[in-house]
Batch of 4 targets.
Target 1
Amino acid sequence: QITLKESGPTLVKPTQTLTLTCTFSGFSLTTNGVAVGWIRQPPGKALEWLAVIYWDNDKRYSPSLKSSLTITKDTSKNEVVLTKTNVDPVDTATYYCVHIFSFGDDIWFDPWGLGTLVTVSS
Amino acid sequence: QSALTQPASVSGSPGQSITISCTGTSSDVGTYNFVSWFQQHPGTAPKLIIYDVTKRPSGVSNRFSGSKSGNTASLTISGLQAEDEADYYCSSYTSSSTYVFGTGTKVTVL
């Protein structure tokens, strides 16, 4: 059974750096085709794709946020970390991590973590 | 990349069929058969209901079906039930090797 859980601060001040950790079980990020992604959702708004890291350490970022995001993995700890620099109140959102399988003719985002709400406020 | 365009809301009566559209560009939906659909009930995480345009994960009702024509993908819910009332999001792989989500559609069961 695959599970993912997001963790990190619930409150961050503007201009600070936000660090979120996705701890997962039931799969390995060294397996061909496997990836972990991050998606966020501001209160009452739509989902927004942020970043993905693949089993071979390939990394992709949302073009609009690329300069402020960094995604890394620690396969020994089964963790993926997302950092966002210089946060702003518009970054207030529920942040989700998700297991991704991408191989050949298949790409699926499943399952998702429960999400963690991060509020940016002074 | 701009978000994929979905209607803000769609409604239907129990038993009816409804269709939600998801319009992108030739850089995403129009080129790749990597369109997914997610269902999200209030206060919960999104759930995958369709991937690769038409494929249904194990355990997802066959009342949900997907299709694509040109730059527009569609999700059809047949035999609408009260439990289908939720927000629905599409997503697509893009030519930049990234992903993009849709603007979201609120489905109301009348």
Target 2
Amino acid sequence: EAQVTQNPRYLITVTGKKLTVTCSQNMNHEYMSWYRQDPGLGLRQIYYSMNVEVTDKGDVPEGYKVSRKEKRNFPLILESPSPNQTSLYFCASRSSGRTYQETQYFGPGTRLLVL
Amino acid sequence: TQLLEQSPQFLSIQEGENLTVYCNSSSVFSSLQWYRQEPGEGPVLLVTVVTGGEVKKLKRLTFQFGDARKDSSLHITAAQPGDTGLYLCAGVGSPYRGSQGNLIFGKGTKLSVKP
């Protein structure tokens, strides 16, 4: 079954404690991205990756890092989380990101609370 | 900056009623996608419209892309409780952003259909 998986699904942490949210896809997709979803603000892109070792900032990259060492994995790293990073996070993937009609598949989401 | 404005933000209707959700922008998009998101899950792609004036139907859902490719609408006929969810429109970003693959999301329309 084609899918994007994220772990953990729920996470409560404290300010400053480094954390990583993992994302994996089994569709051999080149393009992967991370979003955060906040009430009243909608879905905003944090980082994206067009392929292995190729990453770029989205609209709200401050406070986040990513890496793309393998095609299937795209972890999101919060080096020093702050309360304003409390949000619902989604990982997504699509075939290449270079055409206009690709289906983007989303993971189930990670709900993060930073105290 | 490309923005997508969705309206209405909230919609509560009775089963059997018709409704229309709008997605507007001052920018031209290469294509536009509509997603549906249920609580606790990631968005799921419903349709992609590419050509100005294009109309696509998915059972009781009708999607239209404006002639100038700046706006789109989603019309649901005879809504059912199973249609309840968050509906998101997303425009495929223009090439000047450096990637043709990035999606720009509207803030969503939260639809509730009561039996």
Target 3
Amino acid sequence: DQQVKQNSPSLSVQEGRISILNCDYTNSMFDYFLWYKKYPAEGPTFLISISSIKDKNEDGRFTVFLNKSAKHLSLHIVPSQPGDSAVYFCAASTNTNAGKSTFGDGTTLTVKP
Amino acid sequence: DGGITQSPKYLFRKEGQNVTLSCEQNLNHDAMYWYRQDPGQGLRLIYYSQIVNDFQKGDIAEGYSVSREKKESFPLTVTSAQKNPTAFYLCASSLRTPGSGYNEQFFGPGTRLTVL
């Protein structure tokens, strides 16, 4: 049973437009959510996170939205840039074991110039 | 210049041989993790350690072993019991502050293991 799901394996957007990456989870105990970005043959790097006490967190061009009732979160990138082309992983963790995260399968974002 | 190093970047092994992947961090993090990534899939947790001399199995620990004798080091041994060891292996570390909130993980560059 996959507890964190990213249902879109890939997403293609035009440079300058908005990219929206989605993530769903099933475990109601998850209360911290993180997004990581990964380039080929490299390790993921942390991008942005959100606690369950918030519904939005913003950092520059990146905004994460959390809908707890729907068990859904999304990452918005505005405006999208070609350098944003990468695999984006959603991850979730619980406060009782902070640091140990469950990852989704990732969404490959391609931003076309 | 703090970070996580993994060596080697590429590793080839004959079927039936054990092999050890290195992971070192100088971030003074208590917690360390090993993940496996297969094509088109996410990161699956193999083992993790929250403190020296202690570690726990993750979701796919069978065929793997670890040790945590030093805070900075968390080597992973892929044993001959692992049926499908060809994969991309990632090591990560994080601060350990139970009950105080999230801690993002810092990842190494990964080791690609190929079994011939």
Target 4
Amino acid sequence: EVQLVQSGAEVKKPGESLKISCKGSGYSFTNYWIGWVRQMPGRGLEWMGIIYPGGSDTRYSPSVQGQVSISADKSTSTAYLQWSSLKASDTAMYYCARPGTPRVADAFDIWGQGTMVTVSS
Amino acid sequence: DIVMTQSPDSLAVSLGERATINCRSSQSLLSSSNNKNYLVWYQQKPGQPPKLLINWASTREAGVPDRFSGSGSGTDFTLTISSLQAEDVAVYYCQQYYSTPGTFGQGTKLEIK
């Protein structure tokens, strides 16, 4: 079964760093892009960025460029979303998701369960 | 960035009636190379991740009931639920993947009247 399993909920203070994870299984991790989608409380979906683990090509939305870092570890089939200095406005549910077609950054048909990040002093 | 605008923001429909959600993009999502529209529809129920319903503007994903249909081309698209069921209560999003960032519409909340 194809799955994306995300790390657990986090509660952090402003200014702290954080790295959340998304582990893929049941498919060839390096053949599919993985994306990150943000959903702030009570709000809609926001495409943050996407990475191709097979070649490390990474693309960011201008709205988050420079604010987060997306990476992937082929050896553990895990993608990461990282912050160096969190803000209260980073409070959101974060989903990883995988497109349905290998090597193509198209629609997301497999989603992780989500990781809730709460940033509060 | 391509801007996606959905209408209405919320919609209340009686059980068994038709629900229609619209999505407009700020530029064409139709590829001249393959004549496909790079537009999808997702359904998101409370506490769950989104679920892909419709790809290429009109192709239902496997297992999606045939009461769901997508139509449109270029910049104007529609998701139609032909006969609303109680389990269809959700927020529906369109998304373009013609170019990055793959922008979403703001969502349409569908409720039972």
